[in-house]
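Worked example

This section walks through a single chain of length 231. The input is the sequence exactly as stored; nothing has been trimmed or padded.
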Amino acid sequence: MVIEKYNGVWVLRDDLLKGGTKSILMDHILDKNYNEYVYASPVYGAFQIALSIWCKEMGKKATIFCAKRKNKHKNTLICQDWSANVIEVEHGYLNVVNKRAVDYCNETGAQKLEWGAKSQKSKELLADRMREVILKIGHEPKEIWCPIGSGTLVESILMATNKSKIIGVSVGAEYKNSNDRLLVIKYNKPFDYETKWVQDFPSMPNYDLKAWELCMKYKNSNDVFFWNVWG
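Given that input, the structure is written out below as tokens.
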């Protein structure tokens, strides 16, 4: 775990992990009795990368379903570099891509993974990581900023904290859960938009970098922590 300060903000540098934050979940959420794991992914997502890396290193097969594009997204190419079987779907709205993935699993018996690894086990693991952060910093920060996609991360942070104000930047579909300590800010451009904000550490421009951008603009404390997921 690497935590560094940038512009006065504590930053968890999970971009230094192969596959980012979600890489720490793989050993715990994947049933190792399977030889193939299937994930329906937006092309911009990073869970597909973490899965592809884990499968390559474990001698397993990763199959990624995503929308077909004229030019493959860089994340798709990364998955293929890690030997993932990428299946592109015409007219690939996420519900269509997911349906194709479900059908594939019904035919092959592969393990289908939920979008964003949204499970209680994932939340517990990420909550434990947040508790490690608090121990390393030495206190619970007044403000904690993070991106919101499926909601797994922000819900984990809430589980692990007692008094921090959590500011989640929603970068995709509307996040509807609420909590007295949670402020959700909707990023004002669609998920596929890549922010041009510049920072001193790698961050996914359509995901966590958007949260960093708003953190830099609107943080309201000198005691701020930012979770850089890297995708």
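What to look for: The chain has two domains: 3-18+119-228, 31-112.
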